[in-house]
């Protein structure tokens, strides 16, 4: 491999299932080295991970990068949104982090929405109507169910902030990830003291919100990662905002991400405030906005269905009227936190491959239903949909999105767009450039465009119909 042309930067994605690290040549965007190490997520009633495991996974991913990581001039860490990390006075986790896909705080979410003026007021104030994914509802759950843990908490962090702080020694976050907490007001771009007081959280426990382009800190002594003391550290951001940076996204281009979560989003210059709660009004990492809809059941749920059927994930067959809503973890879009999976239309001649295709259809349906809601009204409907995340590698996912959207679909060749976005943020610290402009210079969105096919309206309508007819069942707790 030829020598790098420019300084090296490290971009990290600490996502739900694993941590990925890339060492990137800041001049060209060439990925010089990469590494990945898995995390474990609890099963059962909640979804939790030990934050210390993220740090260990980061160390392992960087070790896989070899000497290149040691040469980095700047680093940035992006990661899964919303998770509640509670630290004691020594900076050690008080308990495992409650993750974005933990739905135990659904009752607290409903109560908070009612207590503070209803969905419209929340949307206008924070950009979003908080559901169980949002950090504020998790903190309210902790106060109610584990008051000792809440009382022992000296600092509250988001997942990527926890790692950044262990590197720099400073508690920082950014507007992108802060906007997914429910206690950051998008209207004022500041912490909302009334909301914090309502859930009994002292603002002094929260990290400083670093401005876009500002240095979060420098690498300190006394850690086991391969970075030199004094290396610049960018503030990082939530994984979706990081991928938007990594794609150099401009308003009007929609993104569909297929990972543990399914997300659909676009950059907008207008601050979102959807009172239905379907669209979360996140901030992006630059100063614009990132209206986004998210599902809890995407690649993991469909892979689980394939495993139950004993099929390879690509072994789909065209469906004939069978509907499978793969809501194995409860669901966020549509807002059905207690839902479980639901099958309708099974016949003697239904094949396993058709059932698997129905799971893909069910996973993609809600995301495509929200696609128009995240785009500004004047967006060009023929702009290709950018397909990213681990699932974007799969032919069955690509073809399902193509058929149910009726849009051209572009699959970037770059695999780790969250980590690339973080790397672009780190490069921006060195050059003073806008990270999205860095990513465009690196041509990260390059990849084949699959032409549009006729939209399969019948399947979309059938799934919408089953959802509506099964409403009572889907609201019922089954465990
Ligand atoms: N070649 C592939 N085809 C289809 N799905 C894939 C492929 N490779 C990985 N995946 C899916 O990608 C998922 C992981 O995606 P990723 O975006 O890394 O998730 P997360 O960010 O939530 O940790 C896995 O659940 C797996 O199902
Ligand atoms: O909750 C959301 C977005 O609001 C999720 O998108 C999480 O940010 C987790 O992302 P992945 O680990 O699935 O990429």
Please provide a brief summary of the model.
With 479 residues, the chain is of the alpha/beta class. 34% of the residues lie in helices and 19% in strands. The strands form seven sheets. Strands 1, 2, 3, 5, 13, 14 and 15 form a seven-stranded mixed β-sheet that branches. Strands 18-19-17-16-22-23-24 form a seven-stranded mixed β-sheet, sandwiched between helices.
Mean pLDDT: 96
Largest beta-sheet characterization: 7 strands, mixed
- Tally of helical runs: 16
Query: Gap between N and C termini, in Å?
Result: 54 Å
What is the oligomeric state here? single chain
Number of strands: 24
> Strand content of the residues, in percent?
15-25%
> What count of domains describes the coordinates?
2
Small-molecule binders: adenosine-5'-diphosphate, 5-O-phosphono-D-xylulose
Function: Catalyzes the phosphorylation of D-xylulose to D-xylulose 5-phosphate.
Catalytic activity: D-xylulose + ATP = D-xylulose 5-phosphate + ADP + H(+)
Pfam families: FGGY_C (PF02782), FGGY_N (PF00370)
Site (Important for activity): 13
């Amino acid at each position: 491999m030829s020598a790098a042309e420019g300084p090296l930067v490290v971009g990290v994605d600490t996502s739900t299932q694993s941590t990925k690290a890339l060492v990137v040549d800041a001049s060209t965007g060439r990925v010089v080295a990469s590494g990945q190490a898995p995390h474990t997520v609890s099963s059962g009633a909640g979804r939790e991970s030990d934050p210390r495991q993220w740090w260990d996974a980061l160390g392992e991913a960087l070790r896989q990068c070899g000497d290149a990581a040691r040469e980095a001039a700047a680093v940035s860490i992006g990661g899964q949104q919303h998770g509640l990390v509670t630290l004691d006075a020594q900076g050690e986790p008080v308990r495992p982090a409650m993750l974005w896909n933990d739905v135990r705080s659904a009752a607290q979410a409903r109560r908070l929405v009612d207590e503070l003026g209803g969905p419209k007021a929340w949307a206008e104030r924070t950009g979003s109507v908080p559901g169980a994914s949002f950090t504020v509802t998790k903190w309210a759950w902790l106060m109610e169910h584990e008051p000792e843990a809440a009382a022992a908490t000296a600092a509250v962090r988001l997942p990527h902030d926890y790692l950044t702080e262990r590197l720099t020694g400073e508690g920082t976050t950014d507007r992108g990830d802060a906007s997914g907490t429910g206690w950051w007001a998008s209207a004022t771009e500041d912490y909302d003291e009334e909301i914090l007081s309502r859930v009994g959280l002292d603002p002094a426990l929260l990290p400083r919100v670093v401005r876009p382009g500002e240095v979060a800190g420098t690498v300190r002594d006394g850690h086991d990662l391969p970075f030199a003391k004094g290396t610049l550290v960018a503030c990082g951001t939530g994984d979706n905002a990081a991928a938007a940076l990594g794609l150099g996204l401009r308003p009007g281009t929609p993104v569909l991400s297929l990972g543990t979560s399914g997300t659909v989003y676009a950059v907008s210059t207008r601050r979102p405030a959807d009172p239905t709660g379907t669209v979360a009004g996140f901030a992006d990492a630059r100063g614009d906005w990132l209206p986004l809809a998210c599902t809890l059941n995407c690649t993991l749920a469909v892979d689980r269905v394939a495993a139950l059927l004993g099929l390879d994930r690509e072994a789909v067959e065209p469906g004939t009227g069978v509907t499978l809503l793969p809501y194995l973890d409860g669901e966020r879009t549509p807002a059905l936190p207690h839902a479980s999976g639901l099958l309708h239309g099974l016949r003697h001649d239904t094949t396993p491959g058709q059932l698997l295709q129905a799971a893909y259809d069910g996973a993609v349906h809600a995301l495509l239903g929200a696609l128009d809601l995240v785009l500004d009204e004047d967006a060009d409907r023929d702009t290709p949909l950018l397909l990213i995340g681990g699932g974007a590698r799969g032919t069955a996912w690509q073809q399902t999105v193509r058929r149910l959207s009726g849009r051209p679909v572009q699959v970037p060749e770059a695999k780790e767009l969250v980590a690339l976005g973080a790397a672009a943020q780190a490069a921006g610290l060195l050059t003073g450039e806008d990270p999205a402009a860095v990513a465009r210079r690196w041509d990260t969105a390059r990849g084949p465009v699959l032409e549009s096919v006729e939209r399969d309206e019948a399947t979309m309508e059938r799934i919408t119909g089953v959802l509506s007819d099964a409403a009572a069942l889907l609201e019922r707790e089954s465990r």
